Amino acid sequence: QSMDSTLHYIHNDSDLSTNSSFSPEEERKSKVQDVVPQALLDQYLSMTDPSRAQTVDTEIAKHCAYSLPGVALTLGRQNWHCLKDTYETLASDMQWKVRRTLAFSIHELAVILGDQLTAGDLVPVFNGFLKDLDEVRIGVLKHLHDFLKLLHVDKRREYLYQLQEFLVTDNSRNWRFRAELAEQLILLLDLYSARDIYDYLRPIAFSLCADKVSSVRWISYKLVSEMVKKLYMASTPTFAIDLMNELVAKFCRCHKWSGRQTFVFICQ
After folding, report:
1. Measured by CB atoms within 10 angstroms of the end CB, which terminus of the chain is less buried, N or C?
2. Residue 123's domain spans which residues?
3. What CATH number does residue 94 fall under?
4. pLDDT digits (tens, 9 = 90+) for 6-31
């Protein structure tokens, strides 16, 4: 009882110092929940205050970002309104380490929030991460399939146009980025139609098959073989036949031995 009265006192005191465009009452309601002691949540939300980074810990915003999915899971999606502003603040933080932390966990948060909140509140943040530094982009790339499978089909198709951009990195020697892209494309085959695979994923796969790094090429061979299987099992195998004809023309009859070797590895 003593603890409850103390927490209540701290909470009331923190309400008085809130600086917002909302009235104090509206601001209080937007952050109130009944799952954990309110003072505890208020302390957590205050971790994004720039003054905390100077007086408490320079990486306090990163710690806040790291814990956010756990806090969201504890509060439940019905209390997401308590965390939404904090999440958006962290997503636009000047430190790339903070944004990177969120990028690596956005797929987990999407599972917690459900499709409606994900489409409204997480997709804009996800789109921002796609255009960020490579250190941040790798976070969304590693879990690209996990995030896209949670979206509606129409929204998911919009990302087909952006997959090509993953071939371009800040540092061309960052081959692990392209290797991860190949791994994710194998998983993405289950999410798209035969026409989408042929029109959008096929050109990326062929580009990866000709990569300078052998590790990327090896994963790409598996990608192309899985692509042939997926297209062949479609209702109309026309795309599979076209793809195999292209493999013969591009690799089997290539004037370079490396191209012909690629064809053999894909067949294997």
Report:
1. N
2. 32-151
3. 1.25.10.10
4. 444 444 444 433 444 556 556 556 67
Domain count, the chain: 1
Residue 11 pLDDT? 44
Supply the pLDDT for residue 57.
74
pLDDT-derived band at 130 (thresholds 50, 70, 90) equals very high
- 177 located within any domain: no
3-state secondary structure the chain: CHHHHHHHHHHHHHHHCCCCCCCHHHHHHHHCCCCCCHHHHHHHHHHHCHHHHHHCCCCHHHHHHHHHHHHHHHHCHHHHHHCHHHHHHHHCCCCHHHHHHHHHHHHHHHHHHHHHHHHHHHHHHHHHHHCCCHHHHHHHHHCHHHHHCCCCHHHHHHHHHCHHHHHCCCCCCCHHHHHHHHHHHHHHHHHCCHHHHHHHHHHHHHHHHCCCCHHHHHHHHHHHHHHHHHHHCCCCCHHHHHHHHHHHHHHHCCCCHHHHHHHHHHHC
Q: Is residue 144 part of a domain?
A: yes
Residues 96-127 have pLDDT tens digits of: 999 999 999 999 999 999 989 999 999 999 99
Whether residue 133 lies inside any domain: the answer is yes
